[in-house]
Amino acid sequence: MRVLLVAPPGAGKGTQGAVIAAHFNIPHIATGELLRDHVARQTELGLLVRQHLDRGDLVPDEIVLDMVAEAMIAAKEGGGGYVLDGMPRNLTQAQALYRIARTLDMTADVALHLQADDDELIRRLLARAALEHRADDTEDVIRRRLALYHEITHPIIDWYAGRGILVSVDAMQPVERVARQILTALEAMRPLLDHVPEHLRRPVDLTGLGAAFGDG
Ligand code: AP5
Fold first, then answer.
1. What's the 192 CA to ligand 1 centre distance in angstroms?
2. Dihedral sign (CA 113, 117, 122, 124)
């Protein structure tokens, strides 16, 4: 299983990425985590990107692409599955990632879009700020991250819809319910992935699922 998570800050990329990785026994490649680890270890790369992270700005494309290419090669050696969390963030990254993945014969099966309202995302991240100490979880920086998401990242959703690999989920529901819907959808798709060529696939919208069963 090869999954990309494309979602705003606080929507649950890290939370659901870990669930998917554990369920399918695949590596969880989280670009934000990898970058924060470099900052914590004060590596050369960490010193280079620290200010970008602190301000909520995107790190230059070539830095994240190199990092992800390395992680994808390791994932290939581990069996070829992956859940990639936090990448791509713009169309340049999406297209470059596609080229890298094609070279490795590991293009994504699913681009998972977690949908949630800005007010809820801000509430979640401020709640996390009270418990953990991520430098970018201040209200100003959270708003900057959200603005960048809407302006630069969200438009790539259409690119994945066009490729027929987009699966949209309502991430306003409790964690366990979001996880259940994601895993059910991925398990249902799994047997088809090797038989349905990408050009015959269509986007899947699960955002009405909760309401359809009286949860809305
Ligand atoms: P990154 O680490 O990717 O941060 P982000 O996108 O801002 O997302 P978060 O980690 O804040 O949220 P999440 O969606 O993972 O949600 P989570 O599960 O943690 O990136 C950080 C920075 O790195 C970027 O700003 C940029 O500088 C740089 N960067 C990274 N990738 C890059 C790239 N490709 N290109 C350039 N720069 C890049 O959940 C959040 C909170 O909500 C948690 O407390 C959780 O418990 C809670 N929660 C989750 N789901 C639910 C739910 N359903 N209901 C209630 N609470 C929930």
1. 30
2. negative
Tell me the pairing of strands 166-170 and 28-30: unpaired
Cβ burial, residue 56 (10 Å; 0-12/13-18/19+): buried
Q: For ligand 1, which residues put their CB under 6 angstroms from it?
A: 7, 9-15, 31-32, 35, 52-53, 56-59, 64, 86-87, 89, 93, 124-125, 128, 136, 145, 171, 174-175, 178
**pLDDT for 126-159, tens place per residue?**
999 999 989 999 999 999 999 999 999 999 999 9
Residue 122 CA to ligand 1 center (angstroms) comes to: 11
Q: Does the pTM of the predicted model rise above 0.85?
A: yes
**pLDDT tens, residue by residue, 90-138:** 999 999 999 999 999 999 999 999 999 999 999 999 999 999 989 999 9
Torsion (CA) 86, 146, 13, 124 in degrees, nearest 10 = 150
The residue whose C-alpha atom lies closest to atom 29 belonging to ligand 1 is 32
> From edge to edge, which strands make up the β-sheet containing 28-30?
28-30, 82-85, 2-6, 110-115, 166-170, 204-205
DSSP string, 94-135: HHHHHHHHHHTT---SEEEEEE--HHHHHHHHHHHHHHS--T
